[in-house]
Amino acid sequence: MTYTPFSTFGEDRTARWLITCDHASNHVPSDIAGGDLGLPAEDMARHIAYDVGARGTSMRLGELLDAPVICTNFSRLCIDPNRGLDDPTLVMRLYDGTIIPGNRDVDDAEIARRVATHYRPYHDALEALAAGRQAPIIIALHSFSPQLKGRAPRPWEIGVLHAKPEDRFGHALLSRLSREQDLTVGDNEPYDGDLPGDSIDQHALQSQRLNALIELRNDEIETEAQQNAWAERLATLLQDTLTESGL
Predict the structure, then answer these.
(1) Helix or strand or coil: residue 119?
(2) Which residues contact 110 (CB under 8 A, 6 or more apart)?
């Protein structure tokens, strides 16, 4: 199968929702370090290489919401599509205590090439999907590790990241989540939602499109059954939020 830097599903679905999965894959394309960044398979299966469980959850969520889904087909270690072009972590050389051998000697020319061949095609396609929908609501789905090396455990099963100038839907979703008694919910946790140049900034904040970035703890979505269960729960939560907020 010919490699492409992104895949889209359900482009003809009619709902306002647009589901994005920036870190869907741990694949290293053959044009990057010969297809091998020098890490063992167990590291490429960790959160440092991709968002564990996010792709399957995104795909099922798109089906339930009648929404298109766009996923990357390259590892975040190749180049991170959820970073601005001037972000020093755009190509990681060290991540959560692990050195990335294939990125050790990456220079500006190679970063520019990865932008042109992987990063930019994904963002162009994402923007085309958003621009082709009336009043879209962009839902970016990510997952996070229960604990980074040397850090405290993260108690949240789910976090909602949001930032101005368009954080109305994020706040409305947090309000709806506050009624879920079995969940520990992070408000801009485990990360701050204000990251200039990230995907939400590029495709939602700068255009003032409704949006939310949802972070699920990856031990909650390791299996297909867990992914489907969370997708079903999120579909209900998102539809409730839209109805209750009147946005």
Answers:
(1) helix
(2) none
pTM over 0.90: yes
From edge to edge, which strands make up the β-sheet containing 69-72? 6-9, 69-72, 17-21, 137-144, 210-217, 158-161, 185-187
Each residue's pLDDT tens digit, 138-151: 999 999 999 877 78
Helix (H, G, I), strand (E, B) or coil at 200: helix
Neighbours of 34 (CB within 10 A): 11
The CA distance from 3 to 7, in Å, is 10
Instruction: Compute CA 81 distance to the chain's CA centroid, rounded to the nearest angstrom.
Output: 9
Q: Which amino acid type is present at position 72?
A: T
Q: How far apart are CA 226 and CA 127, in angstroms?
A: 30
Does residue 54 contact residue 143 with C-beta atoms inside 8 Å? yes
62, 19 contact by CB (below 8 A): yes
Residues 115, 165: Cα–Cα separation, whole Å:
27
The pLDDT assigned to 97 comes to: 87
> Cβ neighbours of residue 4 under 8 Å, at least 6 residues apart?
73, 121
Query: Which CATH fold would you assign to the domain 6-245?
Result: Aminopeptidase (3.40.630)
DSSP letter at 93? S
Nearest 10 degrees: CA dihedral of 62, 223, 6, 2? -130
